[in-house]
Amino acid sequence: LRVVVIGFGSVGQAFLRMISEGGVSSSGLWIHPRVVAVADSGGAVVDEKGLNPREVLEVKRREGSVAADPVHGRPGLTGLELLRDVEAEVLVEVTPTNIRDGEPGLSHVREALRRRFHVVTTNKGPLALALPALMELAEYNGVQLRFSGTVGGGTPILDLGREGLFGNRIEGVRGILNGTTNYILTRMAEAGLPLDEALREAQALGYAEADPSYDLEGLDSACKLVIIANWVMRMESSLGDVKVEGISDVTLDQVRRAEAEGMRVKLVASAVEGRLEVKPELVSRRDPMCVDGTLNAVTYRAEPAGEVTVIGRGAGGSETASAIIRDLAKIRMEAAKLIA
Amino acid sequence: LRVVVIGFGSVGQAFLRMISEGGVSSSGLWIHPRVVAVADSGGAVVDEKGLNPREVLEVKRREGSVAADPVHGRPGLTGLELLRDVEAEVLVEVTPTNIRDGEPGLSHVREALRRRFHVVTTNKGPLALALPALMELAEYNGVQLRFSGTVGGGTPILDLGREGLFGNRIEGVRGILNGTTNYILTRMAEAGLPLDEALREAQALGYAEADPSYDLEGLDSACKLVIIANWVMRMESSLGDVKVEGISDVTLDQVRRAEAEGMRVKLVASAVEGRLEVKPELVSRRDPMCVDGTLNAVTYRAEPAGEVTVIGRGAGGSETASAIIRDLAKIRMEAAKLIA
Fold this sequence. Notes:
The structure is a homodimer.
Chain A: E1 2-6, H1 10-20, E2 24-26, E3 29-31, E4 34-40, E5 43-46, H2 53-63, E6 73-75, H3 79-85, E7 90-93, H4 105-114, E8 118-121, H5 124-140, E9 145-146, H6 157-164, E10 169-176, H7 179-191, H8 195-204, H9 213-216, H10 219-231, E11 242-244, H11 252-260, E12 263-272, E13 275-284, E14 295-303, E15 306-313, H12 317-339
Parallel strand pairs in A: 1-4, 1-7, 7-8, 8-9, 11-13
Antiparallel strand pairs in A: 2-3, 4-5, 5-6, 10-12, 10-14, 12-13, 14-15
């Protein structure tokens, strides 16, 4: 598999580190992705014979951009130009999420699918805005679009719902999909911190961004919910279909009253009877979904399997990169089937 | 797919009910298993053109054995005789678990694999005693052996570990794998019942057998642990490799002391560094694996995804039958790949 990587932050770098340690294997299947190009905001590095991942990482570390590579560097080359230029089978799109217009990820994904590249992405923006259209585009071009890492980091939330519960009817889903807000709400409950102090603590620990509004307002949860709704529940929906309320108005008093009744205030994303919603809710501490700290949890209401809950870290560079590996392996397996 | 069903208790009957409601589908794939024979302890019913599941269920309900069918009934025919007699692609083996010698399930599974039937089973006995040999036999004969329903009922515990966490190294597993003992320990903790009272309550509710020793002594958990160890962690092991201690000696006093420290006594099955063990352990109530009532939970320690926990009902006829459907769908998909 020849792979183009666009975006080279923590996830992209973790991905290159993983494949630099030789092939990656699991379940008896080895995959040996060959990275032929990497692009970041400074340009790209391209070698159709295959780049040395270690060297790319080293140039990035030393110079700030992969484009500074003295032999293969292409300063100023954009991701879109790169896609029009290079021969490969797979785009790994890991630029940052932008929910205003999905760019530049949306254009990267579209161009790659049109060029009949399979696409693996961890970028929620393009999917939250246009997943039904992108899936159609992938199908039309006979290629695969995979995005395990967009929900739950390395925790296989999407796979569990779609493949693990194969044979079930998924009647509803509820989940805690954002680690930042869950950390804040947990600290309010357990340490009695007011929201703004808990937020500052989360920022100091690197759990929250300098501008935390995307997390706090529930938009990150809403993006993930849209992806679950499309992929697991086969609802054709986008971000505009989600009723969203964040945690900014949650008071310490509310949290304390909940606590006294054996409950926790959680930012819950739910898809039930076609309604998509993100809002603070009281969750019983006995509910398996009631996880604390930065953990994520999702409960599928499946018929006949019953309620199935999956819990894990929701983020992290190498965790999310492991989801990319999983997607690449599936692409290889599926593609082998189509060719055979 | 032509299917032979051997064993016709709650799981076998739930399976026939499911497929009697037309084909079964999920993930866009429909499967239409055609049941050509069903055997129970009284004999069998056979029609190579395909039985009517509703009629088979009705004869069972009315007469106690499927062999009473006036047209296709074969009183006294054993499962093994049936397997030597009938043409089919898949054996669904759902006779009761017997951990002494695995019989009659073990002979059914062996004979079916030798005859190049794929096998789907929910019977833990043959697997706990001989899984490595059975997997080799299946491979030698070019057929599949699947057993999703042996662990967790309809909760995809095995699938999550092997497929959902594809691309990870599974470094360890810990779980609560037996609903009966978990119910008893929960009632001891929450209602202050001594063990024997909690057991009687579980029996009255149908959560425990008249002879509860298989659950209480940890053997059911040990069987499931062996299956996880073989399938997910690729350890070649069998029941004799597990150090087992049940809950019979757990006192109300121990449970209360644990409770006071924010812990619960749980019957934990673990596979860590090649050691397989089942024993009562203190588990923090903050641990996502610390579920109550009859729930099951498993935590995989995966690298790099981190700890991933899956929680769900661990048993039930239709829940477990849904795992059979999943296995059949996978067999169909895999077989299509091999033929293509």
